[in-house]
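Lab manual, section 2.4: Encoding a predicted structure.

Procedure: take the sequence of the chain (330 residues), apply the prediction step described in section 2.3, and record the output as structure tokens. A sample record is shown.
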Amino acid sequence: MRLLIVLLLILVAALGQTALGQGSLTRISPDEAATHLEKKVPPVYPPLAERARIQGDIVLEIKIDEMGKVTVLHPISGHPMLIENAMRAASACKYRPFEVGGKAVPVLTYVFVRFGDPKNQDARVRAQMRFLHDYWTTEESGRAALDKGDSAVAEQHLAKAHELWETKAEDVGLSHTRENWLWLVAMGELRSKQHKYEEAERYYNDALAVHSDHKEGVDNAAVLERLGYLHFDQQRYEAARGDFTKSSEIYRKSLKHLEPKNVSAQEGWGRALAKNAWMLSRIADEMKDSAMAKQQCGTVTEFQRFLNKTEHDAILLDCEKRTSAPLTSQ
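Recorded output:
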């Protein structure tokens, strides 16, 4: 029993503070990535854009896996009519694998795809990519320190990243919605770990406000998860139940509209649903509602395949203990 309690405490800390984004991957500069490019695929010009003489560069963030295959994570800037074909062209490119310590590793970087012959584009686009590389290297150093529990170093890097964005992003022609959202979430996580709960809640609520025009998006579901853990730690069980319930509703709706080939999102959202259900079962237990605890553990079972082994064993064992109790309900 003592081992189970220890495992559950570790899981609550880890599940509630999982960093968003790609911080665990090696990030390389666009110039270094270019030296590994083996196969470059030119984009197909969209006929309508070509007739309208729309030209320019599309900046993309990409992941290059251990085999040199490209996955486009998301577009950064460029004309909307050109983005889809730019992503297709970038996805078809091939790189020589990158190595760390003699072992091939996945990496993150930025590339641009050019349409037409836009004048005076090189300097602006390269400045954007250099800035993004510097910004994310700093921001991810903050997240890494946060994951290690080094709050002082995390705060230093996150403050530097925020200053970089506030002072230089506009100069290179970048908006700040995504970066601002991720920074707010990171600051919420930092303040949570420091037990500065009121500040943490403000950061999370500010992050929700960033996507106020799309409240049913998975970004907000992720923030609601974090609010749930925050409220649970404060024994504000009614608020925590509302957070996890709303988060789960968003994930379920999103899963229904997800393309089957998007395995990564399916796994991430399925894992979130399993974790949310487990937390809802714990909240129900605290509120002396055994029937609800059992129901939520049933949802855990539904999505258990998305949990890693450590999560799976500890959470399922906890649910088995909880559901074996006589059913009662308020």
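Check your result against the sample. The beta strands are 26-27, 37-39, 56-64, 70-77, 94-95, 98-100, 103-105, 107-115.
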